[in-house]
Write a structure and sequence with these properties.
This protein is of the alpha/beta class. The protein contains twelve helices and 14 strands. The strands form four sheets. A six-stranded parallel β-sheet has the order 3-2-1-4-5-6, with helices on both faces. A three-stranded antiparallel β-sheet has the order 7-10-11. The chain has a three-stranded antiparallel β-sheet with strand order 12-13-14. Helix 5 links the parallel strand 5 and strand 6. The radius of gyration is 20 Å and the shape is globular. Bound molecules: 1,4-dihydronicotinamide adenine dinucleotide (NAI). The site of 1,4-dihydronicotinamide adenine dinucleotide has 28 residues, from helix 1.
Length: 347
């Protein structure tokens, strides 16, 4: 049997973790032969809830789960880990803008980035889910300079899954038949879910362009794809909060599992998935040093941006808008980090 993977989860007593931990421990993420040691981090007020989660994990009697390390100390949680899933953050509540979350969360991701830098394996792979996910990932990467920045990512797979499912329902096909839908930019209202390179895989193996699968290249299909479709996908998180009075958790856990499994196992030949990764300023006019969601292919645990996809002028304007928002978030986050540093120095 292979060596256990050490997988740390922050916000382990929260609602996404409650769905995700079982998926990890049951082999749905790293495969049915991979033993796992779970490192579970939460904060002091959530310690009782965390104890309950540990009891339940024990009671699941998963044969792959060979150890559990519950703690409130990031230096314990991140020691020698192979993977880090960062859920721990303040969730967005009804009526709250994502930007309001920046201030509260900058401090958390700075502190946890520093801990990661000190004690994690340098090969650790990091997935940030806690919002604002892209900018939180940027901060964590910045404060963990000994770990390659390409090992950090933020979750936009939920947006991709929402987009694929919406198209599948409309086209009357299973969700898995909808392939190569790219989510560009920020996990926010400015994201751009793009179907221009996507297709529906028909039962006989033919690839039907999305627009055609939705009823041909009529103005109606195009209007939908550039209007109601983008709006529905980008506002879906808010719609779920309005309905549930809680942010999406089951679907966020499923998307996190999809994101990690593809990073671990690789993408299917000729297909891409969406992942927010550190931009290098060389592709699609995306500025450097942003955690920007792009289509990637993955082989042997390494992602590559899909290059040279033709982009319409509509698509280019969407990319510019979401990039501008991420630049603004980065500027605000940097100001908050500096304010934290001044307060620390004065204390
Ligand atoms: P939750 O409120 O149920 O759980 C968050 C957990 O994090 C709590 O147990 C809390 O005690 C813990 N926590 C807070 N500060 C912490 C810290 N400094 N260190 C460790 N743990 C800490 O929230 P939920 O629903 O599990 O969501 C988690 C995050 O994921 C939220 O920020 C939410 O907005 C975000 N989210 C992101 C999505 C995406 O697609 N990127 C989709 C859905 C949610």
């Amino acid at each position: 049997q292979c060596e256990p993977l050490r997988v740390a989860v922050t916000g382990a007593a929260g609602q996404i973790a409650y769905s995700l931990l079982h998926m990890i421990a049951s082999g749905q993420v790293y495969g049915p032969n991979q033993p796992i040691i779970l490192h579970l981090l939460d904060i002091e007020p959530a310690l009782d809830a965390l104890k309950g989660v540990v009891m339940e994990l024990e009671d699941c009697a998963h044969s792959l789960l060979v150890g559990i390390v519950p703690t409130t100390d990031p230096l314990v949680a991140f020691r020698d880990i192979d993977w880090l899933i960062m859920l721990g953050a303040m969730p967005r509540r009804e009526g709250m803008q994502r930007k309001d979350l920046l201030k509260a969360n900058v401090g958390i991701f700075k502190q946890q980035g520093e801990a990661l830098n000190l004690v994690a394996k340098k090969s650790v792979r990091v997935v940030v889910v806690g919002n604002p996910a892209n900018t939180n990932a940027l901060i964590a990467a910045h404060y963990a300079p000994s770990i390659p920045s390409r090992n950090f990512s933020a979750l936009t797979r939920l947006d991709e899954n929402r987009a694929r499912s919406l198209l599948a329902i409309k086209a009357g096909v299973p969700a898995d038949a909808v392939r190569n839908v790219a989510v560009w930019g920020n996990h926010s209202n400015t994201q751009y879910p793009c179907v221009d390179h996507g297709y529906v895989l028909a039962a006989d193996g033919t690839r039907v362009p999305i627009e055609q699968a939705l009823g041909g290249s009529s103005a109606g299909a195009r209007d939908f794809l550039e209007g109601a479709f983008i709006k529905t996908v980008s506002l879906r998180g808010g719609a779920i909060i309005a309905a549930r009075k809680l942010s999406s958790a089951m679907s966020a856990a499923k998307a996190t599992a999809d994101h990690i499994r593809d990073w671990f196992v690789g993408t299917r030949p000729g297909e891409f998935v969406s992942m927010a990764v550190m931009s290098d300023g060389k592709h699609y006019g995306i500025p450097a040093d942003l955690m920007f969601s792009v289509p990637v292919t993955i082989t042997n645990g390494e992602w590559s941006v899909v290059k040279d996809l033709p982009l319409s002028s509509f698509a280019q304007s969407k990319l510019q808008a979401t990039a501008a928002e991420l630049v603004e978030e980065r500027t605000e986050a940097t100001a908050h980090v500096e304010a934290h540093a001044v307060a620390d120095a004065a204390a």
